Fold this sequence. Notes:
By secondary structure, this protein is α+β, with helices and mostly antiparallel strands. About 45% of the residues lie in helices and about 15% in strands. It has helices spanning about 5-25, 40-50; strands at about 55-60, 65-70. It is globular and about 40 Å long.
Amino acid sequence: MNDGLNSIVNYIVDEGEKVKAKYLEEQTGPVDYVAIFCKDEDEKKKLLDLVSALGTVAQETPTGPNIKLINPIVTNS
Length: 77
């Protein structure tokens, strides 16, 4: 798996966990979905090229495809 993608996903999950801890008292389940929104079309193309090799399109959406990874990324969540 690509280390850059692992870093991005883990950063997003860690920040989400901080927000969750701030506003929710009860324990919740693990993160099983992460959305990454790109700053421009070039970044979007690079990310899609990367993840397309790591999984299959699960759903097309107006903002881009949802990709189901063959090997899930392990996070702190």
